Amino acid sequence: MLKLPKLPGQKEPPKLWPPTLPETTVPTPFGSVHLPEHKVKLPKLPPLDEKSRNAMKHAVAMDASMVPGLIPFVGDIISETVSDLHTAELRKILTPSEYDRFVKYDKVNPNVIALMRALTK
Description:
The protein is an alpha+beta fold. It has two domains: 1-42, no CATH class; 50-120, no CATH class. 45% of the residues lie in helices and 12% in strands. It contains four helices and four strands, in the order ββββαααα. A two-stranded antiparallel sheet has the order 1-4. The protein has a two-stranded antiparallel sheet with strand order 2-3. Strand 2 (24-28) and strand 3 (31-35) form a beta hairpin. Helix 1 packs antiparallel against helix 2, helix 1 packs antiparallel against helix 4 (111-120) and helix 3 crosses helix 4 (111-120). The chain is elongated. Residues 1-33 are annotated as: Disordered.
C-alpha cells in the first residue's frame, strides 16, 4: 500500500482513503496555528439525464477550449470565441437559478466541477 510522507508539523501522514488531511500545527511569525483533522468529501454526481449530459459536454468543451490559448498570437482569440459559444449554449440548457449557481462556482473551479456543483444543489 502506498503511504504518503509525513510533513513537518503533522502527527501522522495523510490517509488516502477516505481522503483525510491530518491534524497539523503550522508555525507562523504570529504564533502557531493548530488545524484539526479534516475529512475531504467527495463531490456528488449530478443526475445523468439528457439535459445534464448535454450541459456537461459543453462544460468539458469549455475547459478544453483553453488548450488553443497556448498558441502564440491567435490562441487567445480562438480560445475565448469557443468558450463564449459554449457558454451561450449552456445558458440555453440550464435554468436561470442553475446558471447563476454555475457562474458563482465557475469563479473558483474548472467548468466541469462548477457545473457538477450547480446541478447537484
